[in-house]
From TrEMBL:
PROSITE patterns: MFS. Gene3D superfamilies: MFS general substrate transporter like domains. It is a multi-pass membrane protein. This is Lysosomal dipeptide transporter MFSD1. Belongs to the major facilitator superfamily. It catalyses: L-alanyl-L-lysine(out) = L-alanyl-L-lysine(in); L-arginyl-L-alpha-amino acid(out) = L-arginyl-L-alpha-amino acid(in); L-arginyl-glycine(out) = L-arginyl-glycine(in); L-lysyl-L-lysine(out) = L-lysyl-L-lysine(in). The keyword Membrane applies. Keywords: Lysosome, Membrane, Transmembrane, Transmembrane helix, Transport. The chain crosses the membrane at residues 7-26, 38-58, 70-88, 100-121, 133-158, 164-183, 218-237, 249-270, 282-301, 307-328, 340-365, 385-406. Lysosomal dipeptide uniporter that selectively exports lysine, arginine or histidine-containing dipeptides with a net positive charge from the lysosome lumen into the cytosol. Could play a role in a specific type of protein O-glycosylation indirectly regulating macrophages migration and tissue invasion. Also essential for liver homeostasis. It comes from Sinomonas terricola. Its main location: membrane. InterPro entries: MFS, MFS_dom, MFS_trans_sf, MFSD1. Homodimer. Interacts with lysosomal protein GLMP (via lumenal domain); the interaction starts while both proteins are still in the endoplasmic reticulum and is required for stabilization of MFSD1 in lysosomes but has no direct effect on its targeting to lysosomes or transporter activity.
Amino acid sequence: MSSWRAWTVWGIGVFAYLVAVVQRTSFGVVGLEASDRFHVGGAVLSAFTVLQLVVYASLQIPVGMLVDRFGSRVMVSIGAVFMALGQLQISVAESVVTGIIGRMLVGMGDAMTFVSVLRLVPLWFPARRVPLLTQLTGMLGMLGQLVSVIPFLALLHARGWTTGFLSLACLSVLVVVLVLAMLRNAPHGTARAAEGSPEGTRAVLAAAWRQPGTRLGLWSHFTVQFSGTVFALAWGFPFMVAGQGYDTATAAGLMSFFVVVALIAGPPMGRFVSRHPLRRSTLVLLITGLTALVWAVVLLYPGKAPLWLMVVLVAVLAVGGPSSMIGFDFARTFNPSHRLGTATGIVNSGGFAAALVTMFLVGYLLDVQHALGLSPQGLYSLDAFRVALAAQLVVMGFGAVMVFGVRRKVRRQLAASGVHVAPLRVALGVALDEARAKRLARR
Ligand SMILES: N[C@@H](Cc1c[nH]cn1)C(=O)NCC(=O)O
């Protein structure tokens, strides 16, 4: 049994991450109000989100290194202070520049939270619980999106922009108080191992990168997470409404379905990972293959894709979020605890870097087709989207090749330590034989 102390620390960590997700997603839900306040259209507004993501992704590795050095408590508190300052700035900002500075501060604080919170889990809980708790951390944090969409939006509509964003700043202040009062980096006695490393910071980074298991985590995260992120944060809505011709209510319903599926998929994914640790990369590849297949069917479907097909697409994309947590499991199982933050930061940069590159590629391909007169029905026509969104298949293919390549190295390393990974066919045969033998023994 884990102590109440461990659950309290984890609970506060999860709350801090949930609040970070609220801060991250709060601007996206007030697009119309932001357009009025800053007197700008969609293109400039998307710069707020893109810059916030650029800051978030580029800070992952430095943050990981800092967590290994200073521990989760300091990093989560500093992150919450940055987010409080960012939202305070947004609450009074009236120009694009001051607004973007606010969002970048939020991105900085957000970047410090997830990696630091994940690092608490293996330090406070026994190894067998870690995969499921890691999934639950990601899953519960996602509920922050609903806080943005429901109570925050209602408050902003009732009391106005400044009160809405000031309340979010106060939420992060509450996180700082809770973290300083009750969050500890590790149980007594393990605190030294959990803070500061016997190696120098650069040596920690080099060692984490040299470990093929970290890179397998990076490419797994890269390959399975980006398509869902691109869909949810950038191109999903324009594709469904302007490209496919769905009304906004249906598109909004599909987006809510995305969140529900991502929430439901977390626990089974965690259980699979703890029961079949040698099949993690196979699951990543299977989910990547399935995502590519469903995208190909949607993009090649003659005319508007039927609703059932869009439901399947959204479900597959939503599973990508929980699946990407497999990347963190690779980081954890292949690195000692004093390198865990750094390795987790490396892994977490994968999916977000891939998402940024893809967001840009899709926008660029839409623009180029329009400029060359190849999309006469409009910039956001279905045919233009077919070509632009197909770029995802190239990014997915690249990621899958990297997963295959680095997995070979990981398996060689495992074999050297006496762990041999049987081909899937053989392993499935053995599992079926065992199940049959168990059934017979029960008769
Ligand atoms: N894979 C996500 C988290 C997640 C879990 N379930 C669905 N999504 C991830 O990498 N998150 C990083 C972050 O900062 O949120």
